[in-house]
Structure formats: C-alpha cells, structure tokens
Amino acid sequence: MATDDRAGSGRRRGSSPGPRTGADLGRRRRISRRRFLAGAAAAPAGLWLSKAVPAAAATGRSYGPDSACDLPHDVLVRIWRGWRADRSGRIVLVPHGLDYLAGGGLVTHSTPWGYTQHVPMCWYGPGIKPVGIVNRPVTSADIAPTMARLLGFSDFRAPDGRDMAEVALRGGASKPKLIVVAVWDGGGRNVLDLWPDDWPNLRGLVTRGAWYEHATVGSNPSNTAPVHATIGTGAFPRTHGCVDILIRFPDGRIGDPYSRGPDQAILVPALAERYLAAVGEDAVVAEFGTVPWHVGMVGRGSTTGPQPVAVCKKLGANETTAPTWGLPRVIAKHYRFPEYVNDLPRLDDPRAPYFRYADRIDGTIDGKWRGHVIRNQLGGFHTPARIPFQERAVEEVIRREELGTHRETDLLFLNFKLIDEVGHLYYADSPEMSDSVRAQDRCLARFVAFLNNNLGSEWVLLVTSDHGHTTRPKVGGSYPLDQARLRSLVASRFDRDEDGVPLIRRIRPPWMDIDMEELRENHVMVSDLTRFISRLSRADIGRPGGAP
Ligand SMILES: [Zn+2]
C-alpha cells in the first residue's frame, strides 16, 4: 500500500518532493469521504491494483468503494475532482505507486500520483512584481481566475479555481496589453528535475516573477485534454466534463471528447469565451497548439459571435511528410484559422533552418538527431526541429493579429507538445528528452526577447505544464501492467455466457468501463470484479521484460 506521494524517481531523484498529503486542501472546500463514497456507490469507483504483496491486497479494504479509504487524501481528492458518473469509466483504476497500466506499448502519464501531477507554474512579465518562490500549493484551475483579475474582468467566476494573489503588477505598472499562457506539454516537474541543467532560461525567471513550487494539475487523470480544459475554465473535470482523452457520451459511446465538437467536450464556459463575448472586437484571443485537446484553453469558441484564433497540426501524406497547420473539420466552425501560417517555410523545406537545428542540438552534426533520420520522424515533427518551426508561426500570429495593440488586453494560449511526444516515444530519462527540454527552454528565451522587442513592457507570460511523464521502468522502478492481460484474465474468470459481448468495454490507464448488462447476464457483482482485480499482482499482469 503506497502512502507515499513523492515525485517520480529517476537518476536525480529526490529534488522535487510532491505536495504533502492534504496540505493543498486546507483553504479549499473540503471533500468528505462520505460524500465521495456516496458518488462512488452509485457507479462503483475506487479500485486498487496491488503490488505483488498478496497480504496487502487481501486486507479486505482494497477493492470497491472502500478502497478509497486506503488512498492518501490528496490522491483521493484528485480522483474525485476528475471523475463524473455520466462521462467517466465506471471503475477507477489506481495502480500502485509508479506502476502504470500500459496498452499497445504506450507509456502513460495519466495518474493521480504526485510524480505526474506536479507541474511548473511560473508567472513573469516586465510589469510583474518579483516575489520569487511561493510555497502555497496551487492547481491548474487557479490559472483562469488569476488571468481574469489581471485583465480586470469581473464577469468570470471560476467554478473551482482560486486567484493566485501573489501574481501582481508592480506599483505603477499599467495593465498588460497581452497575457500569454505557454504550456510545455508533458513538461511536468519530474521531467524538468531529471534534466536540471537543460532549462536555464526558465530557471532564470524564478526570482524575477512568481514561481509556485507546489503547483499540481489537481485532478486525475493527469493528461492533456482534461488539464487544458481546466486551464481554460478554472474548473476541474468533474465540473467541465472533459474527464479524459476518451469520454462516455450520453448515448453510451466512448470517444474523443472533441469528436463531436467542442461544445460536447466542455460543459462550462471558459474565461476566454466570456471575455471575448464581453469585449467583442476590442481584443483578440488566440490559441496555438497541435491537437483539439489544446483548444480547451480557449473553450468552445463561437459559431455566432467573435471567434478565437485556433491552430492545430494537419498531418501530411505519410510518416516522412511534415505536417502543416490546420483545424480538424469537427471543430473548425467554432474558431478562426489563420491561413497565413501555412505561407511560412515548411518544416521539411531544405532551405529552412529547422532540420539543421535538430541535427545540431545533440552536439553532433551528422545529418541526424540522436541517430534518428530527422525526416523519418514524421517529417521532423517528432524532433526538436518542430520547436523553432512552431515558434516562428506563433510570432507570425502575434504580428498579423496585432496582439498587444488592441483597446483591451489580448490573450494568447500556446501548447508546445514535443516534450510529451518524446516522452511517449523514448521515456522521460532519454537523451532525446534532454534535447527536447533544452529546445523548449531556448525557445522561451527567444520568445521573451520577441515580446520585449515588440510589446515593450506591457505583457505577462505564464509557463506551465499539463502533466509529467514516465521514466523507463528500470530507471524509475516502475512496472508496466498489461491492459490486454488484465482484460483476458477478467474475461476468462467472469465472462462465461459465451454471447460474444465483452464484459469490459474499454480499459484506459486510469479507468475501466464495463458493460453493466453483460455483468448482470453473467450474474457477477461489480464488487466481485473489483475484488478480483485488486488481488492481481505484478506476477499476474506485469508485462514480461518490464521488471526493473
Ligand atoms: Zn499533455
């Protein structure tokens, strides 16, 4: 039974303790255990995958709703904030400590544990009062209300977040003309702490602005879609409804939250929605990321009034063709796509500097990046080449949209996803990750210089992240648990009616959705299922070769 919530271990472990149990709850609405369990009982939640310690698994409190009592309080709260009966998997899976439920060879960072929850939260701007390190715990839900205050916009009340009051303008500083939120996707504190020498520019801002040492995303699972919606709305997934990268829609189908448009993904208005509706043409709101999950930062856009600018990647013809920019059709009518970004040099244009950038960043000019043929990595998109490529396009948006020149404050939301991509491809402890963090940090220096040159002193920048990432099992001491193996063990134990309908509809790292009808037909109680799963050990479902 893990009661320890430290940041993920790595070669340089221990430099980043997660927030202490319960400490981040003192000033918030407290969630009673009874209240959580009342919800859990309606649709059974709380399941404990034990380590290979049968005695621990057999305590009788380790499965079903009662297992919630065994979880550290802050972990339990994150699960509560991230789960809703109508859209989440019916059973919550909480692997032990650093273990994770792997599927299709993918690593996951979707956990309620500190090592994936702990994120950078650094506010800076020429007009921001330098307060340095702030030890008060905050979450991603606190971003939107803080922005609202900086904007002087009182027509927004964050459902769950609270203002980060330490972020304040210096005496005499005027209201910012532009506020930028930059998310280093997957660049949680456990990743940064693995590579402490690779982000000198971000570190340089610590004492020059407000650096929240105990910032967490605050809800389970820690992954892209829910946390970006949290950043945009000031609400946790329990409120905004974008509970995971897959949700259950009202008709029972499970799919990407944005697959039916942004207004089905997010159920409450984002700060940017309210703001744009209020200021109209007097300000511009823009978002630049690569996938629809990132548009959660500006909310659902509009089909009738002023629209935020939004950019995603548009995949090329094959694995060696660089993506361009675009908007998927399902979200396109809610946002305004700035066509001009595709007039810039392509990522794989031989005259462009981007491939050379990726070639050089590993310290060896050999036409490759860490031995990888750059073009073969999605036309360079899965290499550091993509960072200056995207940065250039972002600068173009700032220029062409004339951000920082309008009557009211403009808003710009950025997502840079290379760190996350590289974490999935090579793990957080890889040399590829070192390069990616370094590229991201260099980009920060360039971006700050760009803002200084173009906007003078009237801008504010937040650098944060949406989750941490996973180290190689043998480095972190974690153990991948096999989703397919779990599925087949459950099927062979409980699914006896041979009607071809699977008992388990879907397994995701943080949850499992079951077919309740099929469960009844097999005369199985949910508690039978959760008890069975809670007693599985690494020996049962650990992936061969995944052992430390
Ligand atoms: Zn992410």
Word description of this protein:
The chain contains 21 helices and 21 strands. A 9-stranded mixed sheet has the order 5-8-4-18-7-17-12-13-14. Strand 15 (368-369) and strand 16 form a beta hairpin. The longest helix has 25 residues, at 431-455. The radius of gyration is 23 Å and the shape is globular. Residues 1-61 have low confidence and may be disordered. Zinc ion binds at residues 185-186, 223-224, 420, 466-467.
Summarize model confidence as the mean pLDDT. Answer: 87
Major sheet details: 9 strands, mixed
Number of strands: 21
What is the C-alpha radius of gyration, as a whole number of Å? Answer: 23 Å
Euclidean distance between termini CA atoms: 19 Å
Number of domains: 2
Structural class: alpha/beta
Bound molecules: zinc ion
Strand order of the largest sheet: 5-8-4-18-7-17-12-13-14
- CATH first level of the largest domain: Alpha Beta
How much of the sequence lies in strands comes to 5-15%
Low-confidence stretches: 1-61
Keywords for this structure?
binds zinc ion; alpha/beta; globular; 548 residues; 2 domains; single chain; 21 strands; Alkaline Phosphatase, subunit A; nine-stranded mixed beta sheet; four-stranded mixed beta sheet; disordered N terminus
